[in-house]
Write a structure and sequence with these properties.
16 strands, Aldehyde Ferredoxin Oxidoreductase Protein, subunit A, domain 2, 624 residues, globular, alpha+beta, Aldehyde Ferredoxin Oxidoreductase Protein, subunit A, domain 3, six-stranded mixed sheet
């Protein structure tokens, strides 16, 4: 019998309502493991090149891993993937919470969804059974109403629901998938893919508990891990303040994206960081399945203008910056209100905030006028204008209809030089980290198969502070965050593989290697104890590399290449103020670094994995 996984993949065709179960071999599971690796595999196998992401020809994957649902902190994440409607490239997004483990308990390791339903439906997957149910009564409803009605209809408050809001139904390309109101597959527009399939939600419930090859060893690792979480400084900080501490940390070092990436220091940072958060809107801490970190933050405020409800979660760092410093907004209740609207409507706060910043800069530069906005001014620092724009985007009304297409397409439609203020990579809006201060992260943004994504790559500063964690990779000395040299490329290449482990094995970055409480040695022990496989760090990192290479092959098939492996033009300009004043990313140095990365990775000059690399990773089936 398999340990750690069910050995069952559920395939559903929404067009004809049929479903069947695939039972892959143990060798297949050991090769692909789960998460982003499962996603890459199925998208390459199932999709025809050039398919419209919003057509019934797209394939939607919900993927757990061989570790999802193990009783260890952070071992709870799952992936949602499809061809992205935002970028046209490989699309994936991970989330924590309880949905992933519950899908495993319901009897399946992944769900592969094809076709399009003729009317709104939701999936009900429970104890191995599958139903396609009518969702007409909840179509058009927000995520809160959707969750409540599905639980009422099924007669079980403990059903776990991954749903889309009205933004996903309206096919906003950066709409997201939300589970249990406060956990998000936020990036790459997976909500729009669900909407295009008339799929409102996936509900899961199960009684099967995941078995382990060595349960006592798993318990011992869990005790050690939780004890280390209580003392390991990065984890202690997350438990104390969630991710909001990053507002001050990045502002103090000149890397807090401000005024649409023009600046790296925000004068209002202390009014949106943790101290202000704790004093004004903090309600309680939330967590994910079996996790002792408790990094989630819920907010509450009794206010006529900006009422906040803890049921809908609260803003994390990326949102605090996207709806705060990026748009020069230091009104924390208004920021949290904008976040709450995004959560209920099902819209990625990173892309939404970047779209607002783009619109505000275009307005102040005279590219957009009141004639375009229905008489509304769009100035930086206007919190109410930000909220209004977010609502317009979610409903695809007026100027919001243009902005809801993402900043790349919005700039193409607006014209008039607006592309100078449209910041994205491969069509996806930028996470809130300034690459002028983290050149390794800048490489990660440029090379990520999904477009810029902050959870796929290493943060230079964090690695510099936690060099002891990197010794098993052969990184023996800190690499300077501002350098773009051969040492940085080697560091990035190794760090990318290490970071990618988490997306393949379904582990939260805040609990795992290479920065937080888990160590590489203990992770290997955990995989062995759960699965019974005699594995190694070498094999685990190859799973990560294989996943990245498969996603790269997917993108080259879709026409992406070296021209898309770039950073935003503003990062080639000198930082005007702050601790990083004068710092820029030199275009030639950066291109040399990308070229060297191709060479280290076994890719040719066009960024395509070579035949030898595909053979090396057991991917001969991808050789053309």
């Amino acid at each position: 019998m398999p340990y750690g996984y069910n050995g069952r993949i559920l395939h559903i065709n929404l067009t004809d309502g049929s479903w069947d179960v695939e039972e892959p071999s143990e060798a297949w599971y050991r090769t692909y493991v789960g998460g982003s690796s499962f996603a890459s595999y199925f998208l390459l196998k199932e999709l025809e090149p050039g398919v419209d992401p919003l057509s019934e020809g797209n394939v939607l994957v919900f993927a757990c891993t061989v570790l999802t649902g193990a009783p260890l902190s952070g071992f709870n994440r799952y992936t949602v993937a499809a061809k992205s409607p935002l970028t046209g490239a490989f699309g994936e997004s991970e989330a924590g919470g309880y949905f992933g483990p519950e899908l495993k308990f319901a009897g399946y390791d992944a769900i592969v969804i094809r076709g399009r339903a003729s009317k709104p439906v939701y999936l009900w997957v429970h104890n191995g059974e599958v139903e396609i149910r009518d969702a007409g009564s909840i179509w058009g409803q927000d995520n809160w109403v959707t969750l409540q009605r599905i639980c009422e209809e099924l007669g079980d408050k403990r059903v776990r629901v991954a749903s889309i809001g009205p933004a996903g139904e309206r096919l906003v390309p950066f709409s997201c998938v939300q589970n249990d109101l406060e956990h998000f597959n936020g990036r790459t527009g997976m909500g729009a893919v669900m909407g295009s399939k008339n799929l409102k939600a996936v509900a899961v419930r199960g009684k099967r508990k995941m078995s382990s090859a060595d349960p006592e060893k798993v318990k011992e690792i869990g005790r050690w891990h939780n004890a280390r979480i209580k003392t390991h400084r990065p984890n202690v900080t997350l438990t104390t303040s969630g991710t909001s501490f990053l507002v001050k940390a990045l502002n103090d070092t000149g890397m807090l994206p401000t005024h649409n990436f023009r600046e790296g220091v925000f004068d209002g940072a202390d009014r949106i960081g943790w101290d202000a958060y704790e004093e004004t809107i903090f309600h309680s801490a939330g967590t994910c399945y079996a996790c002792s970190v408790k990094c989630k933050r819920r907010v509450a405020l009794e206010d006529d203008k900006y009422p906040l409800d803890p049921r809908f979660g609260g803003p994390e760092y990326e949102t605090l910056a996207a709806l705060g410093s990026m748009v020069d907004n230091d009104n924390l209740p208004a920021l949290a209100t904008a976040n709450q609207i995004c959560n209920l409507m099902g819209m990625d706060t990173i892309s939404a905030g970047c779209a607002v910043a783009f619109a505000m800069e275009c307005f102040e530069e005279g590219i957009l006028t009141k004639a375009d906005t229905g008489g509304r001014s769009l100035h930086f620092g206007d919190a109410d204008a930000m909220i209004w724009l977010i609502e317009e985007m979610a409903h695809r009304r007026g100027i919001g209809k243009i902005l809801s297409k993402g900043v790349k397409r919005a700039a193409e439609e607006i014209g008039k030089g607006s592309e100078k203020y449209s910041f994205h990579i491969k069509g996806q809006e930028m996470p809130l980290h300034d690459g002028r201060g983290k050149t390794g992260m800048a490489m990660g943004f440029a090379l990520s198969p999904t477009g810029a994504d902050h959870i796929e790559i290493p943060h230079d500063t964090a690695f510099a502070e936690n060099i002891g964690n990197l010794l098993p990779l052969g990184i023996l000395e800190p690499v300077k965050p501002l350098k773009t040299d051969s040492d940085k490329v080697r560091f990035f290449s190794l760090g990318q593989k290490a970071w990618g482990i988490n997306n393949c094995y379904g582990i939260c970055n805040f609990c795992s290697v290479p920065i937080h409480a888990m160590t590489f040695a203990r992770l290997v022990e955990a995989v062995q104890a759960i699965t019974g496989w005699d594995t190694s760090l070498f094999e685990i990192m190859r799973v990560s590399e294989r996943s990245n290479v498969m996603a790269r092959v997917f993108n080259t098939r879709e026409g992406f290449g070296p021209k898309d492996d770039r950073v935003i033009r503003r990062w080639h300009e000198e930082m005007p103020t702050g601790p990083l004043k004068g710092q820029r990313i030199d275009p030639k140095e950066f291109q040399d670094a990308i070229d060297l990365y191709y060479e280290l990775s076994g890719w040719d000059k066009e960024g395509k994995p070579t035949r030898g690399k595909l053979v090396d990773l057991d991917l001969e089936w991808l050789i053309e």
